[in-house]
Write a structure and sequence with these properties.
There is one protein chain. The chain has ten helices and 15 strands. A hairpin with a 6-residue loop joins strand 7 and strand 8. It is elongated and about 60 Å long. The chain folds into two domains: 8-63, Orthogonal Bundle (Arc Repressor Mutant, subunit A), CATH 1.10.10; 74-258, Rossmann fold (3-Layer(aba) Sandwich). The longest helix is centred in the N-terminal third of the chain and has 15 residues, at 8-22. The strands form four sheets. A seven-stranded parallel beta sheet has the order 6-5-4-9-12-14-15, sandwiched between helices. It has a three-stranded antiparallel beta sheet with strand order 1-3-2. Helix 2 (27-34) crosses helix 3 and helix 8 packs parallel to helix 9 (196-205). Helices cover 37% and strands 23% of the residues.
Length: 259
Amino acid sequence: MEKNTYIPAERQKKMMEYIEANTSAQIHELAEKFHVSEATVRRDLDDLDQQGALRRTHGGAIKVDRSTSYESVYSEKISLMLDEKHRIADFAAQMVHSGDTVLIDSGTTTFFIAQALAHHENLTIITNDLYIAYQTPIHPSSTLIVTGGTRRQGRQELVGTITENFIRDSHVDVAFIGVDGIDLTGGATNANFAEVGVKRLMLQAANRSVIAADHSKFGRVALARICDLKEASLLVTDRGVEPEMINRLKKLNVQIETV
């Protein structure tokens, strides 16, 4: 028997407050905290998701971004959807072969992709993300190049004319690009304008352009449009995306892989 001390409405309010305070929460975590079964937590989260109070994820829920221009700080984003990001990264790494030139966009999913390339040989890795450049181990036969540019205030990515000119003059085998939103009509979007020009040029610079995004980005439209989803060679995500969304994307001729 459940040791539930809250009526449903009160329990859901408390769950909402907990997720707001912690950015995200897992089902088993909420079940333990509120002394209810995991089935009860799922029902509560589904109700709150339908109300728009939070976003359901595979295994839990995350806080809703309240505006199209909202950007989580890096330390918050990197701790979200870890299993999903690792799966995406492992799949992405299989697309890279010895001798390739790889362009890696700024972001937390792309950070894990860079980490997954640590043992690949003879790569040339180019990035505009200082955190990726500093934290990524590479094989002794590989080379890592930082684009140069202007560091965004309080962020680790480089943007601006220097960054854009560097990428415009580059041609790579594959580019991995991060986004803040994936939507059927809105396309791929980003929470700020400063990075959009860089991301668009990355798409153009690559033989194969890959958008890497976990399922929490789906159904969301952020401030600035990057591209139509069909403009990327491939969209890689995790199995948390609703099957209906996957089917609709495929009908629009979007190339998508779920891992």
